[in-house]
Amino acid sequence: MNRKTLKVAAIKTAGLDEGVFEGIASAFDNVDSVGDIVRRGAFAKALKADQVTPLIWEHQASSPLAYVGEVIEARETDEGLAIKGRFDLDTNQGAAAYRQVKGRRVTGLSIGYYVNRSTKNAAGNTELLDLDLLEVSLVARGANDRALVTNVKSRSTAPTRSWLARRAADSVLSLKGTTTMHTTARIEALTKGRDEQIKLITEIVETADKLQRDLTGEEAEQVEAATEKAKDLDKKLKKAEADESVMAEAFALAKSVGGVRGDDDGSARTSGYLPMTGAGVKSMAQRIAKASTDPQTKALVASGSRTTPIELREEVAEQGRVPQSLLDVLATRSVGTTYSFLRQTVRTGNAAPVADGGTKPTSVYTVESVDAKLQVIAHVSEQIGHYAIEDNSNLEAFVESEMLYGLRVALENQVLNGSGTAPALRGILNTSGIQTQAFATNTLTSVRKAITKLESTGYVPSVLAISAADWEALELLSVTSGATDVRGVPVDAITRKLFGVQAVISNALPADTAVLLDSSAVSIDTDGMIDTRWSDAVSDDFVKNFVRCRVEGRFGLSVFKPAGIVSVETAA
After folding, report:
1. For a tag site, which of 38, 127, 173, 529 has the least CB within 10 Å?
2. Does the residue 92 lie in any domain?
3. How many CB atoms are closer than 10 A to CB 458?
4. Do 106 and 213 belong together in one domain?
5. Are 259 and 253 in contact (CB under 8 A)?
6. Cis peptide before 361 (omega within 30 of 0)
7. Strand partners, 550
8. Which residue from 166, 165, 162 is spatially nearest to 216, judged by alpha carbons?
9. CA–CA distance, 170 with 202 (Å, rounded to integer)
């Protein structure tokens, strides 16, 4: 959290209600002692957030007694951020703070904030363009000239971060479950991502509460990051839901009317197709909205007819989906930045009948502790014109989709082939202890023998990662070429299963290699966040009016049961 202190000799209490004061909490357009400039508009988003801003004594956020009131009004003026505050006169601390301000013994205001967006100007000063207002403090020490940074720009103490992190988290914990639209893949992904952040926040905060302690510095950082990500995902979710609503209304009306594409004035053309894509559907949706006098009307009815509403369940009963990637079938779990787990390395069961007085045999079940750390996987887009993004609402979504796909491809490659040399993950194929199956006659026979290896050691074969070329070879096998004459090739092309085992196509596999595994043998670890951001702060992008997209996440791989994995050779 950053802080800036402003000397406000003109704090006003005269003519106001008892306990109320006015002042300027942050000055605009002047360079402070560390070269920062707060620009007008920096608090615009924060002021629309409808969140209570506490009034604190000397930034002592870790002490409940330091909360002496709240900001009841805030607005941006030409001079700066003008606020009206009210002290809690029914508490000793609030009444004492008010007496200090009214007696002009305290004349300084200070803000606590986070930076969402900033840029460097030609003179090298940092211009603060978008700030989150976290708290306003009364401070006894004034500032030189118009402003002075108390310059707690480094990390503040853990208790302060703890309170601020909890306060930020409160604003998103109520978001879970608020999605009411019918689910599409994009809405489903956004909802899942947002709810994962909320789950992570809840787990961290509830653990600290259970232990009756404040958040640690690392926990506070995780909560803050997850909070920002949840807010961003919820914003994108609401936009996606709005788009889906327009599309749903358009399809419903088109289905009931059965008309053809028309001009904006309603006259029909003769092209003979409905405007179900692009600008056509938006234009039609606008005409629907203008023509409708009843927002609940879902179809057109003949004159004199009556419509009766029928309740429609919001959720959709989905059919099964064939997984398209190894990442679709591997389990995932949310972990901290560093984590560990216990893995069994030896199982020697020596139980046997024992005579009276005899020495009982010893069984050996050895476990080892595996320490791990999440690693960053990231990439940045090329320069994109600022107005290209502004003028084309689909371009931003397209770039983000491509960037997320690229991240997914990189993660799958690391899961399979990571070398284990930091910052690379240690992939499945480079993990010691996994089983191997040499090529035997053909791909079909090799995979079947690998299934037997897992089953004979107590594992359940559930996932086969295989290349597109090897899967083609399996499907092209004739009835007598390596397959059973009676049953034919045991391939289910519809559900993409082989001998009942779910197969997924992976382009990240080495040549002539497949991977068969028990799904409980491995987990993809993550902090629950994939960060997608747009910025003009790279190189000279700002002055050239370019922006770039950055997508990144932190991931790890836990191989709990190496013997539950078989590397299969699919060619000699």
Report:
1. 173
2. yes
3. 11
4. no
5. no
6. no
7. 380, 533
8. 162
9. 10
Angle, CA of 231, 233 and 234, to the nearest 5°: 65
Burial class (CB in 10 A: 0-12, 13-18, 19+), 132: buried
What would the pLDDT profile of 250-281 be if each residue is shown by its tens digit?
656 555 544 434 444 433 333 333 333 444 44
In a domain, 88, yes or no: yes
Q: What would the two tokens of residue 245 be?
A: 């609503």
Residue in this structure with the two tokens 């009411």, named with its chain if needed: 180
pTM: 0.47
In a domain, 303, yes or no: no
pLDDT tens-digit series, residues 141-164 = 543 333 322 222 223 333 445 555
Helix spans in 354-486 (H): 386-391, 393-417, 443-456, 468-475
For 378-399, what is each residue's pLDDT tens digit? Answer: 999 999 998 888 888 788 889 9
- Is residue 422 domain-shared with residue 559, that is, in the same domain? yes
Q: Which residues contact 243 (CB under 8 A, 6 or more apart)?
A: none
Around Cβ 379, how many Cβ atoms within 10 Å? 12
* Domain end (from 153, 187, 209): 153
Q: Which residue has the tokens 């998103």?
A: 172
Nearest-CA neighbor of 174 among 50, 356, 24?
50
Tokens standing for residue 11: 């704090």
Contact 274, 247 (CB under 8 A): no
We report the CATH number of the domain holding residue 436 as 3.30.2320.10
Q: Are residues 213 and 285 in the same domain?
A: yes
The number of domains in the chain is 3
Structure-block tokens of residue 347: 């199982």
- Output the CA angle 46-404-1, nearest 5 degrees: 30
Question: Hunting for tokens 């009835």 — which residue is that?
Answer: 479
**Domain check: are 25 and 171 in the same one?**
no
What is the domain extent for residue 232? 155-261+277-298
Could you read off the pLDDT of 27-67 as tens digits, one per residue? 888 877 667 888 999 998 888 887 889 999 888 877 888 89
Query: Measuring CA to CA, how many Å separate 171 from each of 224, 228, 240?
Result: 11, 10, 21
Residue 198, both tokens: 């909320």
What is d(CA 337, CA 339) in angstroms, rounded to the nearest whole number?
Answer: 7
Classify residue 509 as exposed, middle or buried by CB count within 10 Å of its CB (0-12, 13-18, 19+). Answer: buried
Instruction: Give CA–CA dist 350/361, Å, rounded.
Output: 6
Residue 483 sits in the same domain as residue 380: yes
317 domain residue, yes or no: no
Cα atoms in the Cβ-side hemisphere of radius 13 Å centred on 426: 16
138 with 159, same domain? no
Quote the tokens at residue 207: 């653990």
| 562 token code pair | 């190496």
Q: Let me know whether 86 and 210 are in one domain.
A: no
CA distances 147 to 6, 30, 41, 110, 438, Å, are 5, 8, 18, 10, 73
Count other C-beta atoms under 10 Å from residue 314's C-beta: 10
Residues 21 and 146 in one domain: yes
Residue that is written with structure tokens 């990231």 in the block: 378
Check: CB of residue 338 under 8 Å from CB of residue 371.
yes
Q: Which domain-ending residue is among 127, 153, 179?
A: 153
